[in-house]
Amino acid sequence: MHAQVDEPTTAVAFGPEADVLLRFAVALLLGFLLGLERERTKDPDLSFAGVRTFALIALTGAVSAWAGEALGVTWIAPAAFGAIALLVLASYVVTAMKGQVGITTEVTAVIAFLLGVVCQLGELSIAGAVAVAVALVLVLKEWLHALAKKLEPSDISATLQFAIVTVIVLPLVPDRSYGPPPFDVLNPYRIWLMVALISAIDFVSWILVKMVGREHGIGLTGLLGGLVSSTATTLSFTKRSRAEPAQSPGFALGIVLAWGVMLARIAIVIGVMSIAMLREVGPTLGAMGVVNLLAIAWLWRRRLGDGRAEVGATSNPFQLKTAIRFGLLFGVVTFAARVAEVWLGERGLYLAGILAGLTDVDAITLSMGQLVGRTPEILDAAARAVVLAIVANTLTKGGIASTVGSPELRRIVLPVAIVLGAVGAGVAFLL
User: 194-222: per-residue pLDDT in tens?
Assistant: First the structure.
C-alpha cells in the first residue's frame, strides 16, 4: 500500500521537470539556429550578436517566462523583454553611428526572445516553425532582393488586390449553396477558395519564372512552361517548329516535358482537394508519368535541342480579372457536371470531363473534388472523369501540334499523345 503511494509521487516529481528542461533545450536550439545564420553574415566590427548571444537571448525568454509562472509574478517576462529591447536599441544606435542602418539582426534578436517565451508556453511546434521561417527569410536575402528588383508596380498592385479580396472580403462571402436541389452546388465561399488555391499554385510558378528569367534552353523552357501553362507552351513550340523545322525534336522535348509537369501539378491539386481521390487517380497518373518519362528519355537521347525559347503566359495570376474568370469557369463546370451526373449518371460525369478537358483541367479537377465531398459514392466515377479530362486535354494539345506544327514535330508528338491518352484511359477503366 505504501509503495502504491510512492509510485505516482515519483512520476509527479520528475515529469514536469523533464518537460521544463525540454522547453529550455528547444529554446536554446532555436536561438542557436538563428544565431548561426547571423554569425555567417555579420560584420565583426558592427553586429552585436552571434551564435552564443542569440542562443542566450532565446533561453532568457524561456527562463523569464518560466520564472514568472513559477513565482506567480507576471512582470518578470515583460521586464526581461524590456531589458533585451534596450540592449538591442543601444546596439542599433551604436551601429547606426558607424554607418550601418539595417535592423535585421536586431529584429531577429527580439524574435529569438519571443520564441523562447513561446517554447515555455509549450508550443514547441509553433516555435520551431516560426524559427525555420525566420531563418529561411534571412538565408534568402539575396534571392528576395533580386526578386524585388524584377517585380513591376503592376505585379505588386495585382497581388495586393487579390490579397485584400481574399483576406478581407472572403469571410464576408456567404458560405452556403445556391440553386434548387439537387443542383445546389454553387457555394460562393468555396468557389473563391478554389480560385485562391489555383492562383497560389500559379503564383509560385510565376515567381519562379520571374526569378529564373523567361528565355532559356528549350528543355528548361518546357519545364517552366509546364508550370505556367502546358497548353501555351505546346502552342508556342508548335508555331516555332514551322519556322525552324530542324529544331523540331528539341521542340517536341519541350512539349513533352511540359505535359509531364502538368501531370505533377494535377496530382498536387487532387491531393489538396481529396486524398481519397488521389488514391483513385494516382495509379493512372503514375502510369501516364512513366510513359511521359520514357518519351522524354527517348527525345533526350535523340536530340536535346540547341535553340532557346521564351516562357509565355507569365502575367500575374493574382490579377482580379484572371481570378474572376477562373471562378466563373469553375462555377459553370461544377454546375454542368452536377446536371450531367443527375440526368445521365456516371456517363454524364465522363461527358463533362471530356468537354471540360478540351480547354482546362484545373476547373474539372476541382469540380470533381467538390462533388466527391458532397456525394462520396461517386468517387470512382469522378476520378475517371478527371482522367478523361486529362486525356482529352493531352489529345487536344497533340492535335494542336499535329495540325499547326512541322511534319517532323507531328511524327514525334502525335504518337506520344495517343499513347499517353490510351494508357490513361486504359488504366483508369481497368483498375
Answer: 888 777 777 776 776 666 655 556 667 77
CB 138 within 8 A of CB 86: no
C-alpha of 334 from chain center: 24
CA angle, residues 380, 385, 387, in degrees to nearest 5: 95
Between CA 358 and CA 354 the distance in angstroms is 7
Give tens-digit pLDDT for 281-307.
999 999 999 999 999 998 887 655 445
**Grid cell listed for 232:** 501555351
Take residue 107 and report the three cell numbers written for it: 529584429
Tell me if 266 sits within 8 A of 390, measured CB to CB: yes
Contacts of 296 (CB under 8 A, 6+ apart): 253, 256, 257, 260
- Specify the 3-state DSSP secondary structure of 375: coil
Per-residue model confidence as pLDDT tens digits over 113-134:
999 999 999 999 999 999 999 9
pLDDT given at position 285: 94
Q: Measured between alpha carbons, how far is 259 from 417 in angstroms, rounded to an integer?
A: 9
- DSSP classification of residue 372: H
What average pLDDT does the chain have?
Answer: 82
List helix spans (H) across 140-180. 141-150, 153-164
Helix H or strand E encompassing 184: none
Say how many C-beta atoms besides its own lie within 10 A of residue 219's C-beta: 18
